[in-house]
Specification:
The protein is mainly α. About 75% of the residues lie in helices and about 0% in strands. Helix 1 (about 1-35) packs across helix 8 and helix 2 packs across helix 6. The longest helix is centred in the middle third of the chain and has 50 residues, at about 200-250. The relative contact order is 0.15.
Length: about 400
């Protein structure tokens, strides 16, 4: 019960920050394409998100994720191919030409402006590496396969596709510098990029493929956002209805009808919350917002998951206290950091000097789990330690593991 409460709360915070990033991205895209006011776009996307999850559920979410993955990889591949064609498939030409036209010159070959010091860079790297393993809408996918073997196979294929897409992104980025930043058609009267810097890839689609490819990439981008927000909303609704309501409040005695009702109420509540926060964080960089969500996942969910699989001395008390310490410290440092404390709350100076808290909050979580586990001398703790080896064998070999169930 305690671990379920921690997991649900951590998942909800991650879902909230990730939803904000995706909602801002979707609304900026709609604003660019249709000329709608940002606030109108926020409300429309929030309503669409709720309707899709309420009436489509997991099946609709799964299909839109499959379709958007195929379309996204195809579109990004074509975009990268056209960029390379423009420079005669010569990477040296791509880099040198981008350096010539960019105001910062050779500085663009250094780490970007998203991180301003080595500690922030290292902290963001930790968050992106380990936070992925703690994202709720990723973890829930492990419950949609038949057994552990298929889960590992899914991870292998997904990692391969993700790695391929990441290779394409640096080509697309330098291509945008070369083909978009030099074209006045993509800028407003003040010289700023139409729709903001978050829309650079969309403008690049127009530059390399014309209006038809622009429409395709815009549709793919919106489908991608819809797939992510649907998965996030489902994960948040599941955390409340199954973990908090059914397991904690009702102590396992809730029926399916009540769980579904709570899930739908949670979906609507998340939609309203996302709309409100989407308006508040309108001007924030999307990549930064995603980094915050990864930081929370890396500080709360990941340490508990990792140590529960590989550390034989872990106890429920250690996991609960350490996990809460990681969650509270990540959110607290984030609020006290430069973005929220200064840019959102308009204080003069940040109390915590770094934008990404993962380096510090992860350490707090691991130390908390370790300390409160080794100092737990209760009978329940001894029993939990005795159960580690059978669980470890099941996780590594599949012997004695439960099969898939209908849910």
């Amino acid at each position: 019960t305690q671990i379920r409460t921690l997991s649900a709360c951590g998942s909800l915070v991650v879902v909230a920050f990730y939803l904000i990033a995706q909602l801002v991205c979707a609304c900026k895209l709609i604003q660019l394409l249709f000329g709608l006011d940002y606030y109108v776009a926020v409300i429309l996307v929030g309503i669409l998100m709720c309707m899709y999850v309420l009436f489509g559920g997991m099946l609709a979410t799964t299909w839109v994720q499959i379709i958007k993955a195929v379309l996204l990889l195809s579109g990004a591949s074509f975009m990268a191919l056209m960029v390379m064609k423009h420079v005669n498939f010569d990477f040296n030409t791509l880099f040198s030409e981008a350096i010539k036209v960019h105001p910062k010159g050779e500085a663009i070959m250094s780490p970007g402006g998203l991180v301003k010091d080595p500690i922030s860079a290292f902290s963001l790297g930790l968050a992106l590496m380990f936070g992925t393993a703690g994202l709720p809408h990723i973890l829930m996918r492990f419950f949609t396969v038949s057994d552990a073997k298929e889960a590992r196979k899914s991870v292998l294929y997904a990692t391969g596709f993700i790695g391929y897409f990441y290779i394409l992104t640096f080509i697309i980025g330098f291509g945008a510098i070369l083909l978009v930043s030099t074209n006045p058609d993509f800028k407003d009267a003040a010289g700023a990029l139409l729709g903001g810097n978050n829309m650079a890839a969309v403008h690049l689609a127009d530059a390399v493929g014309g209006s038809i490819f622009l429409g395709f990439i815009s549709a793919v981008a919106f489908a991608t956002i819809l797939a992510v927000v649907a998965g996030l909303t489902l994960a948040g609704a599941s955390a409340v209805s199954h973990d908090l309501y059914a397991s904690v409040i009702k102590k396992g005695k809730a029926n399916d009808k009540d769980e579904i009702r709570v899930s739908k109420i949670t979906t609507i509540a998340l939609g309203v919350l996302a709309i409100g926060l989407g308006i508040l964080f309108e001007s924030q960089n999307i990549a930064f917002m995603v980094g915050l969500a990864f930081s929370i996942a890396a500080s709360c969910n990941f340490p508990v998951l990792l140590l529960s699989m590989y550390w034989k001395k872990l106890t429920t008390r250690g996991a609960m206290i350490g996990g809460w310490l990681g969650l509270v410290s990540a959110v607290g440092l984030m609020i006290l950091g430069p973005t929220i404390w200064v840019q959102i709350l308009h204080h003069e100076k940040a109390i915590f000097p770094y934008e990404y808290p993962a380096l510090f909050s992860m350490v707090i979580a691991f130390i908390g789990i370790w300390f409160f586990s080794i100092t737990d001398k209760s009978a329940a703790a001894e029993n939990e330690r005795a159960l580690f080896f059978p669980q470890f064998v099941r996780s590594q070999t599949g012997l004695g593991a439960s099969g898939a169930v209908s849910h």
